[in-house]
């Protein structure tokens, strides 16, 4: 009984930590222990660690840790690339070691030994393409091409110069502080790729996410088929129903079969759970980026739109309350108007509710098909913009 309670407490503690880490910043958790745990996990623990290092090793110790942090977070570095390669290589090695001896099996043919290597190889190729392809670096000699491809919308982008690169900043570009360069149609800086995700490599990045999701699903299904084949070949159902006299129904057999799997094939079960969790994470990440591509927006622009909408909303509310104030002053000055009852005043709409709603007017959204085509064939690489480039130069 005591062990069961320990397991329940362990499960609850894990759940609280995971929810706090992932969702602790949500407004619903404001001023709750979940928000405090989130703060501790994301900022507080590191601060305490820095203070401990300061007490133990003095200012030189703190400076050394800050230098490591600067290298890991603020400068281009291959740490996450190496971790990615270790995860893929390690997982494939364990899959090969624990499953290949059962291939070909009752439900799976021998060809999957080779197709699995091919699938992982294509994944690595997409990783290399995303990591090392030019994301669309804006330079002196190609800036006119990007300026022609991305006109200013005069809402979230207007003509400016990059203070660091000292060249005009095309609409939708951003100066990446980690790579220290301006990138066209900037989405985000990806630590896993050690590269920016921009105009020229979003296509590889999307293919990378989709392919890795499919490879994980392939892994789960293939291992599932290996285990199903083992179940069939070992005649476990026959042994359970004939020798142990367990009723031949799914509900009666399932716990025994599960116990047999966990007892005999724990590595394969763990691999399936791991691949399923990674597939879920990849599906979420791919879905988010696909929705951005479908509407021709970037991650960087979602922040810009949030800022613009909240600023515009405040402006509209200020206008609405000024208009309401003016109307009430006019009402007070005219003696003819009857006095409003207390009840009507109580239920009257707030002037803020009369504020005009803010509409997101994304001028780069040209419809689903054209938006997807823009990801596959970037605007600035099209011949029409190369011609415009030469025109701009002649002018
Ligand atoms: Zn720049
Ligand atoms: Zn970057």
Notes on the protein architecture:
Belongs to the DHHC palmitoyltransferase family. Pfam families: DHHC. It catalyses: L-cysteinyl-[protein] + hexadecanoyl-CoA = S-hexadecanoyl-L-cysteinyl-[protein] + CoA. InterPro entries: Palmitoyltrfase_DHHC, PFA4/ZDH16/20/ERF2-like. The protein has 395 residues and is mainly α. It has a domain of 67 residues. It has a two-stranded antiparallel sheet. It has a two-stranded antiparallel sheet with strand order 3-4. Strands 5-6 form a two-stranded antiparallel ribbon. A hairpin with a 6-residue loop joins β1 and β2. α4 runs antiparallel to α6, α5 crosses α13 and α6 runs antiparallel to α9. The protein starts with a helix and ends with a helix. It binds zinc ion (2 copies). The site of one zinc ion has 5 residues, from loops.
């Amino acid at each position: 009984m005591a062990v069961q309670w320990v397991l329940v407490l362990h499960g609850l503690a894990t759940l609280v930590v995971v929810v706090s880490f992932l969702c602790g910043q949500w407004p619903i958790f404001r001023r709750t222990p979940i928000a405090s745990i989130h703060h501790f996990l994301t900022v507080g623990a590191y601060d305490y660690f820095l203070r401990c290092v300061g007490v133990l090793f003095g200012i030189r110790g703190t400076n050394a840790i800050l230098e490591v942090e600067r290298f890991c977070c603020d400068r281009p570095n291959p740490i996450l690339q190496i971790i990615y390669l270790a995860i893929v290589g390690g997982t494939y090695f364990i899959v090969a070691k624990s499953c290949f001896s059962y291939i070909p099996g009752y439900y799976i043919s021998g060809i999957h030994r080779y197709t699995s290597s091919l699938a992982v190889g294509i994944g690595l190729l997409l990783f290399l393409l995303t990591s090392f392809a030019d994301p669309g670096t804006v330079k002196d000699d190609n800036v006119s091409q990007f300026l022609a491809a991305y006109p200013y919308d005069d809402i979230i982008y207007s003509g400016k110069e990059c203070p660091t690169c000292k060249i005009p900043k095309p609409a939708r570009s951003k100066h990446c502080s980690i790579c220290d360069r301006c990138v066209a149609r900037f989405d985000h800086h990806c630590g896993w790729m050690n590269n920016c995700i921009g105009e020229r490599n979003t296509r590889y990045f999307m293919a990378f996410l989709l392919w890795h999701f499919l490879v994980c699903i392939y892994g789960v299904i293939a291992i599932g088929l290996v285990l199903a084949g083992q179940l069939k070949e070992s005649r476990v159902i026959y042994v359970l129903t004939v020798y142990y006299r367990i009723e031949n129904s799914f509900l009666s057999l399932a716990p025994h079969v599960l116990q047999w799997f966990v007892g005999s094939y724990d590595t394969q079960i763990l691999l399936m759970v791991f691949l399923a969790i990674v597939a879920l994470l990849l599906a979420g990440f791919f879905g988010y980026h696909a929705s951005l591509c479908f509407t021709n927006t970037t991650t960087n622009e979602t922040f810009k739109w949030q800022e613009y909408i909240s600023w515009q909303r405040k402006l509209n509310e200020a206008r609405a309350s000024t208009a309401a104030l003016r109307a009430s002053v006019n009402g007070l000055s005219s003696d003819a108007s009857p006095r409003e009852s207390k009840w009507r005043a109580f239920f009257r709409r707030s002037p803020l509710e009369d504020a005009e709603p803010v509409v997101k007017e994304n001028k780069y959204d040209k419809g689903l098909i054209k938006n997807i085509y823009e990801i596959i064939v970037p605007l600035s690489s099209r011949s029409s913009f190369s011609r415009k480039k030469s025109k701009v130069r002649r002018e």
